[in-house]
Design goal:
single chain, 394 residues, alpha/beta, 15 helices, elongated
């Protein structure tokens, strides 16, 4: 089976999603929808990457091809020729059995342009919705019609939220929904147990806060909520990870004004991030839009009580007020109330950890998700018969 993925080459989510099928002997290719070197976790794949320099280190069995100055005639030509031109040529040359666009605003739009340029038979096309691709961007005038064009043109769809299945239909999708599960795949739950602090989660004295503050992230709201909980957090530490510069400044000021130790977690490995959630009593993630946040799932797995914005699909994973608390991302008073409850109710966080561990075993283990992903591609391959027979343009 030959699959052409279209996605962000430097994204860990791209790498982990593809790696679920990387060891099956399939012929895998990735056309880069954005600039960036291939992520170091990618393996057993050919990457078509517009870049002027070769990455210092390539992962195991990753081959770089194509769109470089030596192939195109120079950087100036890349700027003149539409990016979709190169994707169209790769499709004609590869004749893939399946095309899988991983994300919509870059990969989906790009694949649609290539399909329109091809003006003929097109391989079965899967579109996977990432994060805010539909839920937020679908409400913006610049993107609404583009999303409709993608959704009405693709054959298959997958996503992380049942909410987004309904939205896809609203935007004109008439094909087959292949599944609803985390885009980055499952977790090795047996291995992850070693990263959890021993004992009940209620004995932990750490609060983890996701530090994104940008068009979507609302870490500053989280810091303000922590200030409002000064009286119940004197025995706690706060760890802010993936912090933006403005968040670092606000965190230092909040620590000085409250006396609560607030540390900025430097860039770290995935294992270290899991250990952080495994030491936290509460993990806070706030954003005006999301699908299923990976950090939210990691908190569930590691026994940390999740306080998550209600603008994702956390309600499809936890029972609000019982196994997590969902909050308005712009309301520090509401976030503060959630923090206050979760640090003063030991029984709440311990019961939640037990329940979330059962949910993780049923829905998040790698052994549960990987077979579904493999079956997804086999189903698409089987329903469409033999390989697409495009004409070579190289």
């Amino acid at each position: 089976m030959r699959i052409l993925f279209v996605g962000m080459p430097d994204s860990v989510h791209t790498a982990r999603s593809i790696n679920q099928v990387a060891d099956l002997g399939w012929d895998l290719h990735l056309f880069s929808s954005t600039w960036g070197a291939p992520h170091h976790e990618l393996r057993n794949i050919t990457v078509y990457n517009i870049s002027y320099s070769r990455p210092k280190k390539l992962s195991r069995n990753v081959r770089l091809k194509g769109l470089s100055p030596t192939r195109t005639g120079g950087p100036w030509l890349i700027g003149i020729v539409p990016y979709s031109f190169w994707l169209e040529r790769v499709i004609r040359w590869l004749k893939p059995d399946i095309i899988h666009s991983m994300e919509i605003q870059h990969a989906g739009y790009l694949t649609l342009e290539a399909k329109m340029r091809l003006k003929g038979p097109f391989p079965p096309w899967i579109v996977t919705n990432w994060g805010s691709d539909i839920y937020l961007f679908g409400r913006l005038s610049e993107h609404e019609n583009k999303i409709k064009a993608v959704m009405s043109s693709c054959d298959y769809y997958s996503c992380e939220c049942h909410r987004d299945v309904d939205l896809a239909r609203d935007f004109g999708f008439q094909g087959e929904v292949l599944g609803v599960w985390p885009n980055a795949g499952g977790f090795d739950l047996n291995r992850l147990r070693q990263f959890r602090q021993p004992g009940a989660p209620s004995t932990r004295r750490l609060i983890a806060l996701k530090g994104y503050q940008h068009w979507g992230g609302r870490a500053l709201v989280g810091l303000r909520a922590i200030e409002l909980c000064e009286d119940v957090l004197q025995d706690y530490r706060v760890a802010v990870y993936t912090a933006n510069p403005e968040v670092k400044i606000a965190a230092e000021l909040a620590s000085r004004s409250t006396g609560i130790p607030i540390e900025i977690v430097p860039s770290c490995s995935h294992e270290e991030m899991l250990r952080l959630h495994g030491r936290a009593r509460v993990s806070i993630g706030l954003s005006i839009s999301d699908a299923i946040s990976t950090s939210f799932l990691e908190a569930m797995i590691m026994g940390s009580f999740p306080v998550q914005s209600n603008t994702g699909c956390g309600d499809e994973w936890v029972r609000d007020g019982e196994t997590g608390i969902l909050v308005a991302p712009n309301d520090p008073e509401m976030v503060a109330a959630a923090i206050r409850r979760s640090v003063t109710d030991d029984e709440l966080v311990d019961r939640a950890a037990e329940s979330n561990a059962r949910v993780a075993a049923e829905r998040l283990d790698y052994s549960v998700i990987q077979p579904r992903v493999i079956e997804m591609y086999m189903r698409v391959m089987g329903s469409k018969g033999s390989r697409y027979d495009g004409s070579s343009a190289w």
